[in-house]
Amino acid sequence: MNTASSPLTTTSFSTALPTLVLLTMVFFANFMARTLFGPLLLPISQEIGQTLAQTATVFLFLSGGYSFSVLCAGLLSARLGHKRVIVVSATGIGLGLLGLATTQNFDFFLAWTCFIGLSAGLYMPSGVVTITETTAQSLWGQAFAIHELGPNLSFILAPLLAELFVSTWSYPALLTLLGCACLGLALVYALRGPQTTRPGMPPNLTNITAIAKRLAFWIMVMFFVLAVGLEVGLYNLTPAFLVAEKGLSREQANIVLSCSRLLSLAFLPTAGWIIKRIGYRASLAGYLTGAALTTLLAGHGPLWWTIAMLSLQPVFVVSFFPVGFAVLALVCPRGTNDLSVSLTITCSSLLGGGLLPLALAWSGEHASFVLGFTACGAFMLVVSILGILGLHIPQDSPGA
Question: How far is CA 136 from the centre of its chain?
Answer without folding.
Answer: 23
